[in-house]
Amino acid sequence: MQYLDTVPPRLPFMVEPQLSPDGKSEWTGSEWVPVGTQAQHVSGAHVYTQQKIVDSVIMGNLTSQTIVQNSPEDLAKAMVLALEQIGFVGNIQSSNPSQQQMASVKNLLKSSDKLASQGVQIQGSTDLKLGNAARLTGRFQAAMEYYERALETFRSERNKSGEADALINIGYVALNQGDLAQAYSDFRNARGMKNEIKEPNGEADVILAMANLALVGNEFGQAQHLFTEALNIKEEYSDENGIAIALIGLGNILETKKDYQAAQLHYRQGLIIKRKQKDLEGEAIILSNLATIAEHLGNPSDAQRLTSQSIAIKREIGDRRGEAYSHVQLASQAKQRGDLVEAERLYTMALKMKRKLSDLRGQSDTLNLLGVFYEEQDRFEEAEQYFTDSLRIMKQLGDRQGEAIALFNIGNTNLYRNKLDAAQDQFERSLRMAKTVNDHEGASDALVQLAAIAEQRQNIPLRQNLLKDAANMLRSNNLPVTGWLLENGF
Q1: How many CA atoms lie within 13 A of 90 on its CB side?
Q2: Least crowded by CB within 10 Å, which of 60, 209, 286, 325?
Q3: Considering the entire predicted model, what is its pTM?
């Protein structure tokens, strides 16, 4: 952002301005001002100047707004207008920004830091939008500072609604950082405030946040209940964005529960809303979800078509992360067709893209998929290396569920090579980690593999007990017992 100093009034009918000897100032008729300061005159009004916020990444003006007196607070308002123009519009926002959006907000956030350092009192709603931009572009510490400043402002104004909005967003930062207890506390307090001031649609925003928290904690039943509750309220208030978020969340849960037809219906309803809103990013995400559902339903041509549509949109909006994810989908589809050469090429391409973007989580996911790809071809040493690389990243991120998955996969490579001691150790570690994060399905899978090792060692009583434990773990957590366990009477 380029700043203009406050412009003093200039006389309306003045002679040609005189330049100073050094060429840096000009005479207005009353005082010297910097060369290039432009003003327009409106009879009986304050002086107005044009403030343009330019972003070099998208090669153009994000916004051009007439600013009254060009005060610091006016500059802050102009900055918010720029944020809104590139998609940061609400007080509570949980979508993923495109790569283009991430680049576009970088300089705007720097400008906000400069305003704050000058002691400018920025409105709470402005700080919320700045916090959204920081959080959604991965600057969690900066986001927390904006939200806490907004919280302080709203409390000083006794604005309960704004205070609750700030708490919701603070809770989202805690959730992003893995502090589930803090997130729950913030969301609970925010819900109490929204309920106290009788703001049902705002309370539904909190319910959506709590649903996402339950989803992260693998509490699928609770998440489904909360998404449904929020959906009913959002439909009552015709809040299309909230409706779409709830529908997609329910689709995610139904997909996890392998109820693919119901998941497909929810995604399609969300897609209609996103297209109506002209939300290209949201449309691309749902198309990717629908492609996955099509794969599960045995419709490979539909899956490939939907993935290609999603990629086209992601390229249009500059979403490189999303494009890399779609390459993983295409690789999976190629593998299902039996085109292993193309699948390997696409997986490798996706991994390179994620490394270039410094997307650690995306790298880990792709490394796991490459490991599975090589494992299926009995290339166990290569598979183990990819799983080990994924494990290293999951430890770096502090993702215990990701660690459990990587350990499980490493255990499989050792089991297939009859390295039973190493495999048992890895499955037991995977089991412990899966239990700590309530990944009941992952824990059940680890028990099944431990049963396979017991069978190899001809310890049949232990095998039976482990398989019973695996099936009971699923049933006690309302998860279906399917596949091998079901077929063998467990």
Answers
A1: 13
A2: 60
A3: 0.62
Which are the contacts of 265, defined by CB distance < 8 A and separation ≥ 6? none
Please count the other Cβ atoms lying within 10 Å of the Cβ belonging to residue 139. 18
Could you read off the pLDDT of 81-93 as tens digits, one per residue?
666 665 555 555 5
- CATH fold of 280-354: 1.25.40
Please give the angle made by the CA atoms of 358, 363 and 366, to the nearest 5 degrees: 155
d(Cα 481, Cα 269) in Å, to the nearest integer? 29
Give me 431's structure tokens: 């089991």
Amino acid code (one letter) for 259: D
CATH of domain 359-490: 1.25.40.10
The answer to whether 280-354 and 359-490 have equal CATH topology is yes
The residue whose two tokens read 């007439």 is 66
Q: Which residues pair with 61 in a beta bridge?
A: 54
- Beta-carbon contacts of 182 under 8 Å, excluding residues fewer than 6 positions away, are 171, 174
Give residue-wise pLDDT tens across range 133-185.
777 666 778 889 889 999 999 999 999 999 999 999 999 888 877 788 899 99
Please say whether the beta carbons of 88 and 129 come within 8 A: yes
Residue tagged 């599960």 (tokens):
296
Q: Domain ranges for the chain, please list them.
A: 280-354, 359-490
Name residue 242's amino acid: G
Q: What are phi and psi of 320, to 5 degrees?
A: -70, -35
Contact criterion met (CB below 8 Å) for 65 and 78: yes
Per DSSP, helices labelled H in 137-259 are 140-156, 160-176, 180-196, 200-216, 220-236, 240-256
DSSP for 433-475? Answer: HHHHTT-HHHHHHHHHHHHHHHHHTT-HHHHHHHHHHHHHHHH
From residue 418, alpha-carbon distances to 307, 369, 458 in Å are 39, 22, 14
User: Rounded to 5 degrees, what angle do the CA atoms 240, 243, 246 make?
Assistant: 155
Comparing C-alpha atoms, which of 473, 470, 476, 409 is closest to residue 488? 470
